[in-house]
Amino acid sequence: MQPAPRGQLPGPWRLVAAFLLALVLLLGQQGAVSAQAPLGQGPRFPYLGPSLPMPDAETLPAGRVARCRWDLAGVWEGRGQQTDPTSRTYATRLVVRQYGSYLVAEQSADGISYYGVCSGDRVEFDAYTGDSYVGVQTGTVSGNGRRIESTWVLYRPDFAAGYETLTASGRAQR
Question: pTM for the full model?
């Protein structure tokens, strides 16, 4: 084996150095992305949102193996408890539109729109104010499709978290 020319690493070490450099660059890029959207604080459904067209209602959402079991379209009344940063009870109203297993819910009193999916008895939403992603909501459908118990987190403008129970009060106009 010949010695490597001055200033160069021998063959196998050159590969190790190249791998380590690639790893540092990759982690550096992830750090830049994390500064914009910290882990767990970005949309779970980047293909859904206020300025995006709804996917075909006949397709299953990515990563889901079951269609929504319920017709969730309509008006929902909610009672909830904000738990963080301070505790308070509240009432809310949502209007839900359903496209197969895809959902859009408008909570107009708070200016929040939810875009998400229903799979089996589970609903998952990303929350938006205008075009800005602000949080998540996840729940379970029960009561023959007339009740949803959920938890939520808003990251922006200020952190808040809580839970609520939604009860179907009417069917939306189609």
Answer: 0.76
Average pLDDT on 100-125 reads 97
Strand partners of residue 112: 107
- Distance in angstroms (rounded) separating the CA atoms of residues 56 and 15: 46
Locate 122 and state its tokens.
């589970």
Cβ contact 10:4 at 8 Å: yes
Closest of 105, 115, 121 to residue 66, by C-alpha: 121
H/E element, 138: strand 132-142
| Rounded mean pLDDT, 125-139 | 97
Look up residue 173 and give its DSSP letter. P
Using CA atoms, how far residue 49 sits from 18, 43, 88, 114, in Å, is 39, 9, 29, 8
pLDDT score of 174:
40
